[in-house]
Design a protein that fits this description.
Length: 506
């Protein structure tokens, strides 16, 4: 263990009793207390001085002027010590002139207001060789579109095909399908080849067209001329079946389930013949419908008519099937030709299109009245319905035209025989739209409102006879019930079973 005296440091001092290094330091008694106090005060005052005060506060005060002086001194010192920035001298390009300026201006991008000719032309130089004529492309790809009422060859000529080639192509297409049956809007892909002279049309080298949903045609030019190649397209005709809850809106629920708009409208129209959509159909009921569908192997899908309409209310089911009872004589282009709605038992109910054959108001009722022209009271055997001149008049139900022409005070008059001893007549027409001996369907237009015969203004005189006696038209229900039987009923049952076997969403 070493003691402090063992190191000998205390003895190294020239003054006895002092340690090493302390010989020159004066003692506290040698300093004046006044000098120490003055030194401490000076250092304290100097440290309290704010040399960089906020120049935005106390403007004009002593501290503010001191800060301004500090800022000025710092800026002056920075400016004096700065190395300085000298501009860099760059090479100035030689101004363009002549053809070089024209070429640069043609390729440059500049505002049109400053006379720019961007991309319009290139300035000529020594490397440009003038051509006698612009060379043509070896082939040109075009497309044509069939318009409404357009012919196939006329569409090709309009696209640039020569008349001879257009007529030859139309003749080849006609060998596979009637050109008039090709729907409007069909696009035709064309390829025109090289021509020997500019004064003649380019020859047709290739043509592709979707002639039918299940058939595509391709025309190519060979050694002997144009040749046609048929390309059948496989089509799946499985119907589409969709079910769902009615919810708050039958239309919106069916549309949300993926049913096309026209199919939903047909569904509601069919169901409304048996149920009131607003009163009888509830939110918890389920709708069930089947629409015709065609799916091509190329990926296209085509939706057809509504085939089945059903409502499942738990305790009650309404199932309606579209069936053409007289398919042999039906017109496929008409709504009636596509068939009527029969329930699952093969029974259908046909109703009048509306309560009256024309949209208007009743101006004279059935019964005794004062005749407006003759001036005496006599029996009015029908209803007078006031309507604008030229309004269409509809048949209330199916029938055969027994008479269509002008007769006495009725003017232009049409009489329909409906069967079961019922007949109806429509008078004062401005124009007749049917001929005697023809069959009309419910809702078909048979004429137009006029004021012919003994009439005081445009209106329809509507009469109804039962077993030859005139009755009040408002007392007659024009709903009729038809029942299938025999071979037609068996065919209908087979169709119902086929439709009900369709899986949902398939």
């Amino acid at each position: 263990m070493y003691l402090r005296n063992d190191q000998g440091f205390e003895l190294a001092s020239a003054v006895p009793g002092q340690g090493f290094g302390r010989g020159l330091a004066p003692s506290l008694s040698e300093l004046s207390r006044a000098d120490l106090l003055r030194d401490r005060t000076t250092r304290a005052d100097f440290s309290r001085i704010d040399w960089v005060p906020d120049l935005g506060a106390r403007i004009g005060s002593l501290d503010w002027w001191r800060g301004l002086a500090t800022c000025t001194a710092l800026c002056a010192a920075t400016w004096m010590l700065s190395p300085g920035v000298k501009p860099l001298v760059g090479a100035v390009p030689t101004p363009l002139a002549g053809a070089e300026w024209e070429e640069t201006r043609a390729q440059g991008i500049a505002p049109l207001a400053q006379g720019a000719t961007t991309g319009r032309r290139m300035a000529a130089n020594d490397l440009v060789a003038p051509l006698a004529q612009v060379p043509e492309r070896p082939s040109v790809d075009l497309s044509a579109t069939l318009g409404e009422g357009d012919s196939f060859d006329r569409a090709l000529i309009r696209a640039g095909v020569g008349r001879t080639d257009a007529e030859a192509a139309a003749a080849l297409v006609a060998q596979s399908v009637d050109p008039k049956a090709i729907p409007a809007g069909t696009r035709i892909a064309l390829t025109l080849g090289r021509r020997a002279d500019r004064t003649v049309a380019r020859p047709l080298e290739k043509l592709d067209v979707r002639a039918r949903f299940d058939l595509a045609l391709s025309l190519t030019r060979g050694a002997s001329g144009l040749m046609v190649a048929r390309k059948p397209i496989a089509v799946d005709t499985t119907p589409l079946r969709i079910q769902g809850l009615v919810g708050s809106s039958l239309y919106r629920s069916a549309r949300a389930a993926g049913v096309p708009g026209k199919a939903v409208e047909s569904f509601i129209k069919a169901i409304s013949t048996r149920l009131s959509i607003g009163r009888d159909v509830g939110a918890a009921d389920r709708f069930d419908l089947i629409v015709a569908r065609e799916r091509a192997a190329t990926g296209e899908t085509r939706i057809g008519d509504l085939l089945f309409a059903g409502i499942d209310q738990g305790r009650r089911k309404v199932q309606l099937v579209r069936f053409a009872a007289d398919a042999a004589n039906a017109d496929p282009d008409s709504d009636s030709g596509r068939g009527g709605w029969f329930d699952a038992n093969g029974q259908t109910e046909r109703r009048a299109v509306s309560g009256m054959p024309v949209l208007g108001r009743i101006t004279s009722n059935f019964g005794w009245r004062m005749h407006p022209l003759l001036g005496f009271t006599r029996m009015h055997k029908g209803l007078d319905i006031g309507a604008p001149y030229g309004s269409p008049i509809h048949a209330m139900t199916d029938g055969v035209v027994a008479f269509a022409g002008r007769t006495g005070g009725y003017g232009n008059f049409v009489k329909l025989i409906h069967g079961g001893g019922m007949a109806s007549g429509y008078g004062h027409m401005s124009r007749i739209a049917v001929a005697s001996g023809t069959r009309v369907r419910a809702g078909q237009v048979i004429g137009y409102v006029g004021s012919t015969g003994m009439s005081t203004g445009p209106h329809l005189h509507w009469e109804v006879w039962k077993n030859g006696a005139a009755i009040n038209p408002r007392s007659v229900s024009f709903a009729s019930v038809a029942q299938l039987s025999g071979e037609k009923l068996r065919a209908f049952k087979a169709k119902v079973a086929q439709l009900l076997a369709v899986r949902i969403g398939n």
